[in-house]
Write a structure and sequence with these properties.
The complex is a heterodimer.
Chain A: E1 4-7, E2 10-13, E3 19-25, E4 30-38, E5 44-51, E6 57-58, E7 67-73, E8 76-81, E9 90-99, E10 105-109, E11 113-117
Parallel strand pairs in A: 2-11
Antiparallel strand pairs in A: 1-3, 3-8, 4-5, 4-9, 5-6, 7-8, 9-10, 9-11
Chain B: E1 3-5, E2 10-14, E3 19-21, E4 24-26, E5 33-39, E6 46-52, E7 59-61, E8 64-69, E9 74-79, E10 88-95, E11 107-108, E12 112-117
Parallel strand pairs in B: 2-12
Antiparallel strand pairs in B: 1-4, 3-9, 5-6, 5-10, 7-8, 8-9, 10-11, 10-12
The chains are: A mainly beta, B mainly beta.
Chain lengths: 118, 118
């Protein structure tokens, strides 16, 4: 079945540094990827939508200069948290939208990346 | 606007009890999709079911069953004979008519934490 991977699965970084999170679709081409954020004991909230080859669309309240999204290929999207602060500590989950042969468009979630900023 | 309400924040049951998780949704779309996901402590979302708005048939999968009622905008999830391994946070989610498109992100409820005690 379709698999979406995220790397790293967890990361600890110091305040002020930048962290890059990768989201890969392993056996299908993902024209669209969605980035969600989940704070402890809360729900998933959409941060941004990225389409291959174009600029990401950010949800209201999400700083595009702080959360840089690049979707350079049909199988890879990256989220870079720049100048991270402790309040950015969260669980970041991507989902990839793709068309499997003989099927319809579906979305598949990655396993998530737990970011802790100290 | 689209919205998903899971009024039950936490539920605790004893093993072998049946438990129903409630989900109420709001949307103006005539075509929409409803989902249930399980999130164990590891954080990875486990897909359970997707149902489109034109299919009101109830679904049963092993110990899991789902009751979709458009008249009350509800999509409830029942676990029969619960087991300790069912302990997790369960999310109900909604996507509109553009689910297959580049704006087809999911709107999540706040989740219900289910604890099944031996």
């Amino acid at each position: 079945g379709a698999v979406v991977s995220q790397h790293p699965s967890w990361v600890i970084c110091k305040s002020g540094t930048s962290v890059k999170i990768e989201c890969r679709s392993l056996d299908f081409q993902a024209t669209t990827m969605f980035w969600y954020r989940q704070f402890p004991k809360q729900s998933l909230m959409l941060m941004a939508t990225s389409n291959e080859g174009s600029k990401a669309t950010y949800e209201q309240g999400v700083e595009k200069d702080k959360f840089l999204i690049n979707h350079a290929s049909l199988t890879l999207s990256t989220l870079t948290v720049t100048s991270a602060h402790p309040e950015d500590s969260s669980f970041y989950i991507c989902s990839a939208r793709g068309l499997l042969e003989g099927s319809s468009y579906e979305q598949y979630f990655g396993p998530g990346t737990r970011l802790t900023v100290t | 606007a689209q919205k998903v309400t899971q009024a039950q924040t936490e539920i605790s049951v004893v093993e072998k009890e049946d438990v129903t998780l409630d989900c109420v949704y709001e949307t103006r779309d005539t075509t929409y999709y409803l989902f249930w996901y399980k999130q164990p402590p590891s954080g990875e979302l486990v897909f359970l079911i997707r149902r489109n708005s034109f299919d009101e048939q109830n679904e049963i999968s092993g110990r899991y069953s789902w009751n979709f009622q458009k008249s009350t905008s509800s999509f409830n999830f029942t676990i029969t004979a619960s087991q300790v391994v069912d302990s997790a946070v369960y999310f109900c989610a909604l996507s509109g008519s553009n689910y297959g498109g580049s704006q087809g992100n999911l709107i999540f409820g706040k989740g219900t934490k289910l604890s099944v005690k031996p």
